[in-house]
Write a structure and sequence with these properties.
single chain, 134 residues, mainly beta, Lipocalin, 10 strands, globular, transport, ILBP, Fatty acid-binding protein, adipocyte-like, Calycin
């Protein structure tokens, strides 16, 4: 159920994210900014089943709108243009991005009331943890 993810989430920790950004191919300057910001995620679902994930930080605000299992064009925070599909499997939101022959996955899961985002690119894994805001 996507509804369990709905809400506003504040990032509380980030591990190995610089290595992940490097693996994805982000520039040094973009990685510097990426390491400084602690984004909030706003996740919502409308009456038509369209899901919105908005990432807000002092650096940039991004938003994607999608339906589960339907491919869409995404422009990432670092301006990659990806073909993206988001699915719900075993209670986890799987966010798969493909571009230039590459692929990365962000797996979002709820653990102990926290939103855990596991970012995977080849053999590099970063883990970012968010807590629900009141």
């Amino acid at each position: 159920m996507v509804e369990q993810f709905v809400g506003t989430w504040a990032m509380t920790s980030s591990e190995n994210f610089d290595e992940y950004m490097k693996a994805v191919g982000m520039s040094f300057a973009t990685r510097q900014m990426g390491n400084l910001v602690k984004p909030s995620l706003l996740i919502s679902v409308d009456d038509q089943g369209v899901i919105s994930i908005k990432g807000k930080s002092t650096f940039k605000t991004t938003e994607i709108k999608f339906k589960l299992n339907e491919e869409f064009d995404e422009i990432t925070t670092d301006d990659r243009q990806t073909k993206t599909v988001i699915t719900l499997e075993n209670g986890k939101l799987l966010h798969k991005q493909k571009w230039d022959g590459k692929e990365t996955t962000v797996e979002r899961d709820l653990q102990d009331g926290k939103l855990v985002a596991k970012c995977v690119m080849n053999d590099v894994v970063a883990v970012r943890i968010y807590e629900r805001e009141a």
